Every structure is written in structure tokens, then in C-alpha cells.
Amino acid sequence: MKLTLALAVLLLVAACGTDTADTVTDPATDPADSRSTAATPGAVSTGSIPPWVHGEVSTRTLATVMDTGDPELCLGPVAESYPPQCRGIPLKGWDWADQHGRFETSGDVRWGLFKVTGTFDGTTMTVSGAIPEEVYDALRDPERPEEPLPSGDAGLAGPQQQEIQRKVEAHPLPGTLSVYATPAAVVVEVVHDDGSLQEQVDAAYGAGVVEVRSMLVPVIY
């Protein structure tokens, strides 16, 4: 009986280790089943953040300048810790001495809220000016868009908007900071859009379905 059982086990092991026509292949690992993101419906190609080459840009409104060794401009969410935490784009030409008494410190960390102006090459912002929170007047800010939410924005987003949000998150635009769905549109906040990112999502999802909001905007003279 023991000998018969041992032989049965050996035969089972040999069968499991043999490739046959009945072998099942996991589709997720089958090279023939691999798909590129470009072939996915609604996919948007990713790449570099578009630079602004036609003069200066500024932050949409006040933004956090964070310095834990090198100054960065945080255009997205900021963790409400002490000191706060965030990651942003590098700032070139930032001098804290120009903002004496208008920022906070904790150890070697320095930070403050500023409306920052400069040029943007797609990676780094070179600073030409900054208005601290203490003297910033949003009502007199020519670059601050009034931007009411799209019509029908009140309430919860429906399944269609939520599905589009998932697709946008799966294929993020360059410089994406946040994505959220409203009943009217899926809103994507990005570091900077020169109009090309909006054209991409319009082509992928249809006009008015996804709204791209650039956190860096052209300076109005």
C-alpha cells in the first residue's frame, strides 16, 4: 500500500513538471497578451511638463515655498504638520533675505506662502519676484482666475465621471498634482499646461469631459 501511494505521488509530481498542450498560461504574464498604454481607450501619453516660453508665469494664487536644503515651489497638497511637508519644483534665484520676517523656520527648515513670478522651463522656475502672504490681495490679483466651478458641479459625481477619473489616474498627465471628479467634469490640476495637455484630454475623452487646470499661469501685464 505504501509503495503504491509513493508511486502515485511520483507520477503526480512528474505530470505537474511537464509542459503539455493542456498547460494553462496566466494571461497577465503572456507576452502575446501584453498591451501598450497607447492602445488603451482613453489613454493619454505622458512626458515632460510643458514649459512656458513666451514670457513670465506666476502661481495661480498663493503657494508654499519650502526649503529643507534647496527651495522648492509646492503647487499641490501640503501636509499640515510642523513644519509642513511638501514636494515641488525647484526654484532658481530664490533668496530668503528678500523676504526677511515673512517666513517661518523650524531648525534648518524655512517656509512661507507667496505668489511667485518667474520663467519656467518645464523643470525649474527662475524667480523674478514674489509677493508674501501678508501683503497679497487676491481681489486685486490680475492672474488669479475667477474660475467658477463648471455648471452642475454641486453634488456627487456619477459613475461616468468616476470611471473617467480612474482612467485619467491610470494614465496621468505630466505634472499631475490632483485628480477629482465633479458631476460636470473631471478636474486635473497640473504644474503647468500651455494648452497642449488640454488638447490631449479633449482628443482622448471628448471636449468638456476633462478640465486641465494649470497651477502656473501667464503673467498679465
TrEMBL record:
Matches recorded under PROSITE patterns: PROKAR_LIPOPROTEIN
Region (Disordered): 22-52, 142-162
Signal peptide per UniProt: 1-21
Skewed-composition ranges (Polar residues): 34-48
Record keywords: Signal
Low complexity composition bias: residue spans: 22-31
Annotated protein name in UniProt: DUF3558 domain-containing protein
Lineage, broadest ranks: Bacteria, Bacillati, Actinomycetota, Actinomycetes, Propionibacteriales
